[in-house]
Amino acid sequence: MPRKFTCCALLLIVWAGVVVQGQTPAYKLLWSPGSLGVPGGQPTGIIEVAPGLFYVLGANMQSTFGASVLSVTSTGQENLLYSLPPYFASWALVQATNGKLYQAGFYSSDRQNLYYSASASGANLAEYPFPGKWGSAWQTIAAPGELFDMVALPTGGSPIWGFARILETGEITILHQFSGSDGTPTGANLALGADNNFYGVGNQQPGGISPGFIFRLTPKGQYSQLLAFPQFPTDGFLPLISASDGNLYGLFGAGGPDNSGILYRATLSGQLRTLASFPKDMFTPQTLLEASDGNIYGSTDSSAIFRYDTKSHKLTKAFQFAAGGTQGLCYCQLIQGMDGKIYGVTGNGGPWPGNGAVFSLDFGLPKPKPTITALYPAAGSVGQQVMLWGKFLLAATSVTFNGVAASTLHVTSAQSVSVTVPEGATSGLVTVTTPNGSFTTTQTFTVH
User: Fold this and answer.
1) Angle at the Cα of 35 (from 33 to 37), degrees rounded to 5?
2) Is the peptide bond before 353 cis (omega within 30 degrees of 0)?
3) What sign for the dihedral angle of Cα 71, 105, 101, 243?
4) Is 81 helix (H, G, I), strand (E, B) or coil?
5) pLDDT tens figures, 332-377
6) Can you list the domains of the chain with their CATH numbers?
């Protein structure tokens, strides 16, 4: 392998917010649990598995069910897919390049840590134990043919941290164990960079001081530090994303003139630049997203959605959730759908009893076009299976090798498509087409 409840849908449309590019953002509540005792409440994660079809991870757990996964459509139809065992907590959901769903978590009673996988339909639930007492500490990230996670090992004092690879078969390997000189990973997530390495935020505490830094981990577990922050305000989740310009973008939940937060950019060569400081009415930014207009969006603890224009370098409030929390209380996890809308989940607020919400926000953004960032492998003969790795690949309709169409095509996730090199193919560029457009690689696929 290359490395690589059921209940009535609740639909409510509320017009609110501020003008962005001439359009008033349209908020739509897609689903909110009507009871504290049903699976799927307190939604914490969302992924798109087909255009207009989203899978949502609900963290709510009871004596009869654990964290649950349900489908929610862009029109507000909801269906429970599966629940994990009672009292099993989970906070991350990803779809791997084999099309399966993966999530990590633990039993709240004894902190027994496990990974679970299921088919895309929610069937064939499988359980994988961690080695020893290790357990997931962050959000699992999908990579070509594999998954990666930050993990922790409880001790009598500070936990020991590690970087783990999870094969799609469920085998878990600790690739790197953080030493004292490595510092402590403290960010909210790992970002898969344009160089196929993983990046995260960490800090150290020599002499009672906490210098912060961005660290780099290769897929084999080799560790290094990319850059050090001149200041390290540690409030918030410290998220990091890899953007289409090849750079990393991150947040501090504090700092700046109003001590409300900072947005920064870091190059993979180690150059750091502060882009914007957050005002008092957008305090504690917590999540980040690059959208199809090339701009950066995110949510804050003030229940605002912000927008950073990468051309004008202006930070603005793009949307403010209704007072009282009836639309939801952010921070909110956000993704962009194939239809261009922003979709999100929040574990707090929403209609009574305030057990969270799944929603969409229409800013009039363009539908995201597909991209391919790598081919696995980059060479092969006719009949060779090849994985296209990129973004917004759902509903791909064709893949061509130097103009020759592949006869077999299988979309396995929003980031991956599996195809077979067709008869008559010659060395050249690879093109993928979705309903939103086409993309041709700059990398040549070599036919043997």
Assistant:
1) 110
2) yes
3) positive
4) strand
5) 999 999 999 999 999 999 999 999 999 999 999 999 999 999 999 9
6) 12-362 (2.130.10.10), 371-447 (2.60.40.10)
